[in-house]
Amino acid sequence: MSSRSTPLDGKPTQCVGFLLLDQFTLISLASAVEPLRMANQLSGQELYRWHTFSSGGQPVWASDGVPITPDASWDKPGVADTVIVCGGVGIQSVVTREHITWLKALARQSRRLGGICTGSWALAKAGLLDGYECSVHWEFLAAMQEAFPRVSMSASLFTLDRNRFTSSGGTAPMDMMLHLIGRDHGRELSAAISEMFVYERIRNEQDHQRVPLKHVLGTHQPKLQEIVALMEANLEEPIDLDNLAEYVDLSRRQLERLFQKYLNCTPSRYYLRLRLIRARQLLKQTSMSLIELATVCGFVSTPHFSKCYREHFGVPPSDERAGSEMSRRPAVLAIAQPASTRPLSALEQARNESTFASVRMSERT
């Protein structure tokens, strides 16, 4: 990467390129780009630059019918050290041999590569996710698992695995970019960006997509779907597994076989996971005490709840809450610098915003 500036924290300006595929989702692109813009605005420095690419530099139609004219043709990616593929509808028919050849060339140049929404399909098709963990929109999870057995698929909102960055669709790319910005320039900046976007909290890699069970099972196994619905409706007072089986006219052994075959876990493990996910939501979004959380999520005691929580999420619930509260603290504001009258770049345009340079960037060694 060639940089023309170095922010006060000593790190060179990073340039991110976005490859727009036909029928890409506009909300995913905006969710990835806007945090970069706001990082510049709030820091008052050019921390990031970004460019869009397409085949031949031709206009690309988003999935909502909006035409986008990219900045450049994809044969000139030298301005970016990170390239993120923006996918969307009909990704299997959109990725061409030329896309694959181009992405492989970038990988040989040791570029960091990413995909948002269904963009990771293109990377997997090029063999660039073999041996990596990967996220994709839940609608394509099953298809990618079948098509690319060497790729470790994850239901997480986003996944950062070495030099591969992948996320699901919608607003999930924002969480991924906020995480990267926080890692590069500090948590205070990413928290301030979240506040500017009225984003309640920055989700992390442990947050999973809500994958509809009907999508996983299709129209098959209605009894399994009914059992899961019963579990979800009875988190505070969990139903005994024998009773669950009886409700749908199955034996307990048949119930266990169904869960192992279609959900790769025991019924009790699945039930526990539902309760812990609910506890995590309440922990981050409410001020309920740990005792109250344990009770409403069906745990017999607070120590038992804390033990299960730590085993599942890798962090005690008390530490999880402390981290969540930290991310919601208001950023320390600095005196805004004078606005520029010559908006020649994204950074200079940001000078006209009242929040320009409102977050201090501490100098790092």
Brief description of this entry?
This protein is about 45% helix and about 10% strand.
Written description of the protein model:
There is one protein chain. The chain has a 7-stranded mixed beta sheet with strand order 5-2-1-6-7-11-10, with helices on both faces. 44% of the residues lie in helices and 12% in strands. It is an alpha/beta fold and 365 residues long. The longest helix has 19 residues, at 267-285. A hairpin with a 2-residue loop joins strand 10 (158-161) and strand 11. It is globular. The protein folds into 2 domains: 14-196, Rossmann fold (3-Layer(aba) Sandwich), CATH 3.40.50.880; 218-327, Arc Repressor Mutant, subunit A.
Descriptive tags:
alpha/beta, 7-stranded mixed beta sheet, two-stranded antiparallel ribbon, 365 residues, Rossmann fold, Arc Repressor Mutant, subunit A, 2 domains, 16 helices
SSE diagram, text form:
Elements: E1 14-20, H1 26-43, E2 48-54, E3 60-61, E4 67-68, E5 72-73, E6 82-86, H2 91-94, H3 97-108, E7 112-116, H4 120-125, E8 133-135, H5 141-147, E9 152-154, E10 158-161, E11 164-167, H6 172-185, H7 187-196, H8 213-217, H9 222-233, H10 241-247, H11 252-263, H12 267-285, H13 290-296, H14 302-313, H15 317-327, H16 346-350
Parallel strand pairs: 1-2, 1-6, 2-5, 6-7, 7-11, 8-9
Antiparallel strand pairs: 3-4, 10-11
Helix pairs in contact: 1-6, 1-7, 6-7, 13-14
| Rg estimate, integer Å | 23 Å
Our count of helices gives 16
**Low-confidence residue ranges:** 326-344
Report the portion of residues in β strands: 5-15%
For the record, what CATH class of the largest domain applies?
Alpha Beta
First and last CA, distance: 20 Å
- Dominant shape: globular
Q: Which sequence of SSEs, written as H and E, runs from N to C?
A: EHEEEEEHHEHEHEEEHHHHHHHHHHH
The CATH architecture of the largest domain can be given as 3-Layer(aba) Sandwich
Beta-strand segment tally? 11
Percent range of helical residues: 40-55%
* Domain module tally: 2
Give, in spatial order, the strands making up the sheet with the most strands.
Answer: 5-2-1-6-7-11-10
Largest sheet: 7 strands, mixed
Organism: Pseudomonas izuensis
Keywords: DNA-binding, Transcription, Transcription regulation
Pfam families: DJ-1_PfpI, HTH_18
Domain HTH araC/xylS-type: 225-323
